[in-house]
Amino acid sequence: MTGKAPVGVVSVDGTWIRGKADADPPAPAGAPPLRRNKVDHRKPIDELTGFEISPDFELFDQRNDVFNRANWDDTVRSDKALEFWAAYVMPNARARKADGYSQRDYALRNAAWHFTKAFATLKAGEEGRNEGFNDTFTMHGPGWPEKWPLGDPAETAREIKQVAKLFGADLVGICEYDDRWVYAQKYNRMEQASKPVDVDDSMTHVIVTITAMDHELTDTVPSALAATATGMGYTEDAVTLMSLAQYIRNLGYSAHASMNDTGLNIPLAVQAGLGEYGRHGLLITEEFGPRIRIGKIFTDMPLEPDTPRYFGVKEFCDICNACAAGCPVKAIPFGEPSMEAPNQSSFSTIRKWTVDGEKCFKFWTSQNTECSICIRVCPYNRSYKTRFDRFWRWLAGTPMRRLALRLDIWLRDASRKKATSWWRR
To answer: How high is the mean pLDDT of the chain?
Structure first.
């Protein structure tokens, strides 16, 4: 990594985090204009996804993401937040005697994250990029100057899914480009400034990929060891996305590989037919429940989009509060979906269950690692390899869902497993 950090900025393996000593105002001066202050708030696809969107809908500004706010907002930024980021570089890991937080546990977690972070920060010094999290990936070859002649969009979509799975995707879906889910502007942590989104409306489709996270590692959450599943999810996702994007570029079409950057993954994944939205604010898939990472590729390749799938998640979440009850800081709401938002890190113009990102991130920093308790306790967090799990999923989508909830409580052990048991298996 090269480049000089601005005054008052701490460099964490290439990720620039502004320290508390910096006194710059929260709103960077000279920020670029929003991509568009208003967009059409309703689209025909909403009839299939069930999205209820207010006429006051506005695009989300990436600088308000809670992870970015930890960089400029004193209500989120803290010494513990700085320690949290720093811990991804091994000498800074705050190893301790508690189960799941040993040097060995952090060593595995940080190794799992190493590939993704190396690519994310490759251009941090020269260009202030944080690829995969604030910016699209740019490690592409030149591709081909002419477009390969494509036939039926349905057949092209089938081939793209075949290639995506070859490159490591567990699930793949396709939706039309929807400008509502692209950020109003991106955020540069190094320069403490917003910048224009570099994916424009010339893109026609979004290929959404799903990578399943390891079940047994997730069973040990909260722990540094459990976060290994998250790191490997991102690492596998990055390989899949960059490889698939290069294939599309080699055919002469545009492709922008994206993880958490540029736009919102969950609404695109719902539109791509990969799952439904859950009370914990996560995508729930039929195949893996919420135990997944999501990636996407913006492209102008002509593809047939998938149809959103419905298997009863909303109705089941209406009667299940496992994630809300299991959250130690009560960041997940009980009750009905609402257009209310707890703070600026969430949309306030879409009717949904909204997690309080501030409470969630504060717990992460107190643990010095990510948390996914809500995933571990979710009744949909199953392998679906057994007939019973598949029967349970069917039952949960019927009017007998209360029986499914009771069966989950009686028969599925959702308690935290010791990290030492994972190492000894």
So the answer is: 91
Whether the per-residue pLDDT at 104 is higher than 50: the answer is yes
Cα 162 from chain centroid (whole Å): 23
Distance CA 170, CA 69 (A): 32
Measured distance CA(345)–CA(306) in Å, rounded: 30
Residue 3 lies inside a defined structural domain of this protein: no
Specify the pairing of strand 9-12 against strand 15-18. antiparallel
- Give the burial string for 36-63 (b: 16+ CB within 10 Å, else e): eeebebebebbeebebebeeebbbbbbb
Query: pTM here?
Result: 0.92
Phi, psi (deg, nearest 5) at residue 284? -110, 120
- The helix/strand/coil state of 172 is strand
The verdict on residue 1 lying in a domain is no
Looking at the 3D structure of the chain, how many domains does it have? 1
CB 377 within 8 Å of CB 323: yes
Q: What is the rounded average pLDDT of the residues 110-126?
A: 90
Measured at the CA of 195, the angle between CA 110 and CA 192, to 5 degrees, comes to: 60
Residue 305 near residue 177 (C-beta atoms within 8 A): no
Residue 192 — pLDDT band, cuts 50, 70, 90?
A: confident
Distance CA 406, CA 404 (A): 5
For residue 350, tell me if it sits in a domain: yes
Per the structure, the complete domain to which residue 76 belongs is given by 9-423
- Predicted confidence band of residue 189 (pLDDT cuts 50, 70, 90): confident
What element of type H or E holds 326?
A: helix 322-326
Domain membership of residue 151 (yes or no) is yes
Residues 339 and 373: beta-carbon distance below 8 Å: no
Mapped onto helix, strand or coil, the DSSP state of residue 280 is coil
